[in-house]
Specification:
- By secondary structure, the protein is mostly helical.
- It has 2 domains: 75 residues, no CATH class; 57 residues, no CATH class.
- Helices cover 67% and strands 0% of the residues.
- The protein is built from 8 helices and no strands.
């Protein structure tokens, strides 16, 4: 919704085709999305929800709050979900040193439990963002 509002703001010719009701609906979607993110208290439940979200709307509107929620729940990152979290960071290209440090810590502590095929996906965000924990 935020991205649509910015787009309309900078490109006035589309303003005539967009009603106030549509803009309010987009703002409500953002608001409810933020509320849901703030209420999550379990990383697995959050992750199930994140799997279904796609597109620019998510990236522009909810990314920072999603990362803040992941940081709040980062004690739940373990060998079972570390690859998925690393893939999320790579896909969004969002530098979160707290999450990357947690990923590195989990990998160092639980390397024997992590399948060798997922190691490349785990180290990818460190390479993309040139981050050395």
């Amino acid at each position: 919704a935020t991205s649509v509002l910015r787009w309309i703001h900078y490109d006035r010719k589309y303003l005539d085709n967009t009603t106030g009701k549509q803009l309010r609906l987009l703002q409500k979607l953002d608001h409810y999305g933020l509320q849901r993110l703030r209420k999550f208290n379990n990383l697995n439940l959050l992750w199930e929800e994140l799997k279904s979200l796609k597109g620019d709307w998510f990236a522009e509107s909810l990314l920072e709050e999603t990362v803040a929620t992941l940081q709040r729940l980062m004690d739940e990152i373990n060998y079972k979900n570390v690859a998925e979290i690393a893939t999320f960071i790579s896909r969004t290209n969002y530098l979160s040193t707290l999450l990357l440090d947690r990923i590195a810590s989990v990998v160092v502590q639980q390397i024997e439990k992590i399948h060798p095929f997922v190691i490349l996906g785990i180290i990818l965000p460190f390479s993309i963002m040139n981050y050395d924990p």
